[in-house]
Specification:
The chain is α/β, with parallel strands linked by helices and about 450 residues long. The chain has 20 helices and ten strands. Helix 7 links the parallel strand 7 and strand 8. Bound molecules: 6-phosphogluconic acid.
Length: about 450
C-alpha cells in the first residue's frame, strides 16, 4: 500500500511525486493519458517504488486508508470528471485535495459535492513551478481541519523553510480560501512580472542600453533589497541565446494567461476594490495578442523614435514604489474579502507561506512580513514614509516615458492610484452631480 495518491501526472504532478518519493513518501500515480510504454519510473529513479496506474479502481485500492488523493488536472471538464470519479470510488473520510489553480468559487462548489458523499476536501493553491514543487513548494490550503491535520506531517516533509522558520504551507480557512490566497499570489506575480518587463522595455527602447546593460542593472538590484526570484530569472533570460540569437530578439511577444489574474480582477470588481495595476498587467497581455489591431495602429499612429538617458536611481525608486503599491492593493483586497465574506485570512500568514518556495519569493516579501503591520497596512506609518521618499523617482521616470512615447504599464497606474487615494477631494464630486442630474441618483451634501 502507498501513502499518497496523485491524479494528473503532468509536469507539476511529476515534481510532486518526485519530491514525495525523495522524502520517503510512497506514492500511487494515476493519469488516464499514461503511456505505459514510456514508464515514468524509468525516467526518475526515485520513483522506482511508486505504483503507476491507468486504471482508477486499481489506483484507489493501492492507497492506504484514509486515502489522500492529490488532484492536479486543469480546472473545467477534466477536473469535473476526476471529481465525479473520486466521488464514485473513494470511501467516507478519504481526502480529496484539489491542488490546481481553481477558481475559489468553483472550489466551494466542489467542496459541497464532495461533502455530500462524506469525503473530506482540501482546496490547495500551489506555487513554485516545476522546480519549486520538486524542491519545496509554497502551499496555500483551505478546507476541512480534520483533513488538514491528516496531511500536515507529509506536507512538512515536502515544503521549504519560511521566514519565521516554519514550513511553507498553511491553512487559511474554508475550502475556497486556499485557492483565494493562491489567486492573490498570482495577481501579485502578474504585476511583478509586468514591472520588470516594463523596465526592460523602457531601457531597450531608449537605444542606449543593450541586454547586457539591463542584465547588469537587474543583477545589481538582485544584490540589494530589490532581490526576487522573478528578477533573477529575468536577468538570466535577458542574456539567453538560441542559435546565436538573443532569445528576446526572436521570442513571440504574445502573452497568455491561465485565468487567475482575471478571477482576482473579478473579485476586485465584486468587492469594489481598485486593482488597477493588475488590470494594466493583464491589459498588456491582451494587447499583445491583438495582432490585427496592433498592425493597423502601428501603420497609422506616429511615434517619435528617440534616444534618451535613464536616471537609474530614479528607476530604482520608481520600481520600489510600484512594488509596494502592488502589495498594498493585494492586502486591501484580502482585507475587504475578510470583511465582506466573514473570512479571517491572515496576510502575515500568507507572506510567511510566500517567503519560500513561491514564484513571488523576494526580500520584499520578507521585509513586509518582518517590518510592517501588514494586517493593518493603513495604520503603518512606515509605509507612507517610504512611499513619500520614493515617489519623486516615479514621477521622473514617467515624465521621461511620456516624452518618448513609451508606455510603462503598471508604473503609470501606481501613480494614478496614489494621487487619488491620498486625496480628500476627487473628480467624483462632478460624477455625483452628473448622476444626480440625469438619473436623479441620490447625493449627499457635506
Ligand atoms: C506559480 C504560478 C503558476 C501559474 C503560472 C502561469 O505560482 O507556480 O503562479 O501557478 O500557473 O505562473 O500563470 P499564467 O499562465 O496565468 O501566467
Amino acid at each position: 500500500m502507498t501513502d499518497f495518491g496523485i491524479i494528473g501526472v503532468g509536469r507539476i504532478g511529476t515534481s510532486f511525486a518526485r519530491n514525495m518519493s525523495l522524502n520517503g513518501i510512497k506514492v500511487s500515480l494515476y493519469d488516464k493519458n499514461f503511456d505505459t510504454s514510456t514508464d515514468i519510473k524509468t525516467h526518475y529513479s526515485e520513483l522506482e517504488s511508486s505504483l503507476v496506474f491507468d486504471d482508477i479502481n486499481k489506483f484507489i485500492s493501492s492507497i492506504s486508508l484514509p486515502r489522500k488523493v492529490l488532484v492536479l488536472v486543469p480546472s473545467g471538464p477534466s477536473l469535473d470528471e476526476v471529481i465525479s470519479l473520486c466521488i464514485k470510488n473513494l470511501n467516507s473520510n478519504d481526502i480529496l485535495i484539489d491542488a490546481g489553480n481553481t477558481n475559489p468559487t468553483i472550489s466551494s462548489e466542489n467542496h459541497q459535492k464532495i461533502k455530500s458523499k462524506n469525503l473530506l476536501y482540501l482546496g490547495m493553491g500551489v506555487s513554485g513551478g516545476v522546480e519549486g514543487v520538486l524542491k519545496g513548494p509554497s502551499i496555500m490550503i483551505g478546507g476541512d481541519l480534520k483533513a488538514f491535520n491528516e496531511v500536515k506531517k507529509i506536507f512538512s516533509k515536502i515544503t521549504s523553510n519560511t521566514i519565521n522558520n516554519s514550513k511553507s504551507f498553511e491553512l487559511f480557512g474554508d475550502s475556497n480560501q486556499g485557492h483565494f490566497v493562491k489567486m492573490v499570489h498570482n495577481g501579485i506575480e502578474y504585476v511583478e512580472m509586468q514591472l520588470i518587463s516594463s523596465i526592460y522595455y523602457f531601457m531597450i527602447k531608449s537605444n542606449k542600453y543593450k541586454y547586457d546593460d539591463i542584465a547588469k542593472v537587474f543583477k545589481k538590484w538582485s544584490k540589494s533589497d530589490l532581490n526576487s526570484y522573478l528578477l533573477e530569472i529575468s536577468s538570466t533570460k535577458l542574456l539567453e541565446k538560441t542559435d546565436g540569437n538573443f532569445l528576446l530578439d526572436i521570442i513571440d511577444d504574445k502573452a497568455d494567461d491561465n485565468g487567475t489574474g482575471r478571477w482576482m480582477l473579478k473579485y476586485g470588481l465584486d468587492l469594489g476594490c481598485s486593482l488597477n495595476m493588475l488590470n494594466a498587467a493583464l491589459d498588456s497581455r491582451f494587447i499583445s495578442k491583438n495582432n490585427n489591431a496592433r498592425l493597423k495602429f502601428n501603420n497609422s499612429i506616429k511615434k517619435e523614435i528617440m534616444e534618451y538617458d535613464i536616471n537609474i536611481n530614479s528607476l530604482t525608486d520608481a520600481y520600489s514604489f510600484c512594488r509596494l503599491i502592488n502589495y498594498v492593493q493585494a492586502f486591501l483586497l484580502i482585507d475587504s474579502a475578510n470583511k465582506n465574506y466573514g473570512w479571517d485570512i491572515s496576510i502575515s500568514k500568507a507572506l510567511n507561506v510566500w517567503s519560500n518556495g513561491s514564484i513571488i519569493k523576494s526580500d520584499l516579501v520578507n521585509t513586509l512580513y518582518k517590518d510592517y503591520s501588514v494586517d493593518n497596512i493603513l495604520d503603518d506609518k512606515k509605509i507612507f514614509k517610504t512611499l513619500n521618499e520614493l515617489k519623486p523617482g516615479l514621477i521622473d521616470v514617467l515624465n521621461l516615458s511620456l516624452k518618448n512615447d513609451v508606455s510603462l504599464p503598471c508604473f503609470s497606474e501606481a501613480l494614478c492610484y496614489i494621487n487619488q487615494i491620498s486625496s480628500l477631494f476627487l473628480s467624483t464630486r462632478l460624477i455625483q452631480a452628473q448622476r444626480n442630474q440625469f438619473g436623479s441618483h441620490k447625493i449627499s451634501i457635506n
